[in-house]
Amino acid sequence: MNIKGLDYNTQRDKLLLSEYGREVQEMIAYAITLPTKAERQHCAETIIGIMRRMTPHDQGSADYEQKLWDHLALMSQFQLDIDYPYDVNHALDIARKPEPLSYPMKKIPVRHYGYMMFEVFEQLKTMPAGAERDALVRMTANQMKRDLYQWGHGSVTDEKVADDLARYTDGAIQLDLKTFRFEKINEKDFVEKRPRGKKKK
Predict the structure, then answer these.
(1) Which of 23, 144, 162, 167 could form a disulfide with 175 if both were Cys (CB 3.0 to 4.6 A apart)?
(2) Are 112 and 149 in contact (CB under 8 A)?
(3) Where are the beta strands (DSSP E) in 29-110?
C-alpha cells in the first residue's frame, strides 16, 4: 500500500547489510553518482570512517579493515568506481550462503530411546561379560528408564526396561530384577519437562 507523504521500509530497497543501516547504504548510493573519481574516493573513505565507528567491537580482528572495504563493495554492488586499498574480488564469498547441511535420518525401532542408545544396544550385543559390560548395562538401563519418564510412554516399570533391553540387544542382556537396583528417579521432575501438546477445545 502506497500512501502519499509516508515512507515505509516495505516500500524501500532491501538493505544489503542491515547492520550498517539504511543511512550508510544511501550514502554509498550517493557516492556512486559523484562525477569524478576523486570525489567518489573521498566520499568512500568518509563512509568507511562512519562504518568504523559503528563497529568498534570488531576492531581487534586482523582483517578488520579488509572487511570494511569488502562490505562497502558489497553494498555498492561493485558499482562504486574507486581505488580500493584491498582486493575486494572475494567479497562475494561473504554474501554467499553456505550449502545446507544434510540432516541424517536414521531409522530406529522407537524414537524415545534415541539413536545413540541403539548404538549402545549394538555394542552390548557383542561385548564380553565382565565389569566393563556390567557398568555399561547399569548406565544404559537407568538412562532408558529416564527416557521413558521424559517422554511419558505409558507405565514406566522395571519390567518394561528389562524387556526392552533384552529385545534390543537380541537377548544378550538379561537384567535380573531381583538383584539389579535402578537409580532413584523423582518422577515430578520429568512430568514438568514433558513436551505438551495443544489443548483440545
Answers:
(1) 162
(2) no
(3) none
Give the separation between CA 16 and CA 89, rounded to whole angstroms: 17
Handedness of CA 151, 146, 123, 104 (dihedral sign): positive
- DSSP characters over 97-117: PPPPPPPP----S-SSS-HHH
CA distance 106 to 86: 47
Grid cell in block for residue 177: 530384577
Residue written as grid cell 505438551:
196
Whole-angstrom distance, CA of residue 49 vs CA of residue 51: 5
140: alpha, beta or left? (left if phi > 0; alpha if psi -120 to 50): alpha
Residues of the chain with pLDDT under 50: 1, 8, 201
Whether the model clears a pTM of 0.70, i.e. scores above it, the answer is: no
Backbone angles phi, psi at 86, to 5 degrees: -130, 160
